[in-house]
């Protein structure tokens, strides 16, 4: 089956491309390369052993997306194309609403016109806001503490309304926790443009000597060491979750309908735990400085992922040391050499 990956040249999209190809699907990429490198296509070809089908374009271009779906007989879409930095969303909310909410509206219009009504949507644990307790199950009350999370919440509600209006639609809503790591080959990984907005790539850049120290935003949270606790999930496990979601939607799994599931490990790690694990994986010191809390951050957030196990037969298998090892292999490979085919 042909699967369209919007934003498929990015960090999670590129890893999912490889996982889908290995599972027997034929993935196709639509990407405007505003936050990714076209060089990643050659590495995806090396990893999969087949030519990579890719169209440069904007997911908000309804005519283009509709034409691609029709021309390539697309069976389902996986929607990755969106901005993802919490801090940036606080500083530039309109940028996030225009791209993240406006983009999926255009995509759904194109899909509907082309009679393709199966979608896997990249949602986020940010839809839980500042949770009253952990671990978080899918029936927790939703809220938001920043425009990024609000946009994801709006998109989820939009999908639910669309599914109610037309029962032909089938949605797999995947609430990511914190994707980290890289492909074990070291060929693809996370390569953020400018200053990293997420913890692991920043830690990696400090370890490799690109940055002097890590800013730890807040050490007075109600957590074991005072720093924020998150559920870090290896990007390889996350990619496998997308394969499982597509298989369920296309082959009548998960009860035959739409579903919303958490994708996480079920275990939280603090910022300082990540620093220590990365130091052990890399053999490098990661200096850090404590700074004030950031707007929009919460104390702790980690998943109960048992529903994904029951509905999709999916479980995260890789540990924090695995994540740090693969992230370090990627980061040390790209440091000090010509710019590689990175995925952002």
Describe the structure.
- With 344 residues, this protein is α/β, with parallel strands linked by helices.
- The chain folds into 2 domains: 2-181 and 232-263, Rossmann fold (3-Layer(aba) Sandwich), CATH 3.40.50.720; 199-229 and 266-334, UDP-galactose 4-epimerase, domain 1.
- It is built from 11 helices and 14 strands.
- It has helices at residues 11-22, 40-48, 62-71, 86-91, 93-113, 147-165, 199-207, 235-251, 271-282, 306-312, 320-334; strands spanning 2-6, 26-31, 53-56, 74-79, 118-124, 170-176, 178-180, 214-217, 229-230, 232-234, 259-263, 269-270, 288-291, 300-301.
- The strands form 4 sheets. It has a 7-stranded parallel sheet with strand order 3-2-1-4-5-6-11, with helices on both faces.
- α2 links the parallel β2 (26-31) and β3.
- The protein is globular and about 55 Å long.
- The chain starts with a strand and ends in a 10-residue tail after the last helix.
- The model is unreliable at 336-344 (pLDDT under 50).
């Amino acid at each position: 089956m042909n699967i369209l990956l919007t934003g498929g040249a990015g960090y999670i999209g590129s890893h999912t491309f490889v996982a889908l190809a290995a599972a027997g699907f034929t993935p196709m990429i639509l990407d405007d390369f505003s936050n990714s490198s076209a060089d990643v296509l050659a590495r995806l070809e090396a990893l999969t052993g087949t030519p990579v089908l890719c169209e440069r374009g904007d997911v908000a271009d309804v005519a283009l997306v509709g034409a691609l779906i029709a021309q390539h007989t697309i069976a389902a879409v996986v929607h990755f194309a969106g901005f993802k930095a919490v801090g940036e969303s606080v500083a530039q909310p309109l940028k996030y609403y225009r791209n993240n909410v406006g983009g999926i509206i255009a995509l759904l219009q194109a899909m509907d016109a082309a009679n393709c009504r199966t979608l896997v949507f990249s949602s986020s644990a940010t839809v839980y806001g500042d949770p009253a307790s952990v671990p978080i199950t899918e029936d927790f009350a939703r809220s938001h503490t920043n425009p990024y999370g609000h946009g994801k919440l709006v998109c989820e509600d939009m999908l639910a309304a669309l599914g109610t209006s037309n029962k032909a639609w089938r949605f797999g809503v995947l609430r990511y926790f914190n994707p980290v790591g890289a492909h074990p080959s070291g060929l693809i990984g996370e390569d953020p443009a400018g200053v990293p907005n997420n913890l692991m790539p920043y830690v990696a850049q400090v370890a490799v000597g690109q940055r002097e120290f890590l800013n730890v935003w807040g050490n007075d949270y109600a957590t074991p060491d005072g720093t924020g606790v998150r559920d870090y999930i290896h990007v390889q496990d996350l990619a496998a979750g997308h394969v499982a979601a597509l298989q369920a939607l296309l082959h009548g799994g998960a009860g035959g309908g739409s579903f919303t599931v958490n994708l996480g490990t079920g275990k939280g790690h603090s910022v300082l735990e990540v620093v220590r694990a990365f130091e052990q994986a890399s053999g490098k010191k990661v200096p850090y400085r404590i700074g004030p809390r950031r707007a929009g951050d919460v104390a702790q957030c980690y998943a109960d992922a048992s529903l994904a196990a029951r509905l999709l037969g999916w479980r995260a298998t890789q540990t924090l040391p695995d994540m740090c090892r693969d992230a370090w292999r990627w980061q040390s490979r790209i440091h000090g050499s010509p710019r590689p085919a990175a995925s952002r």
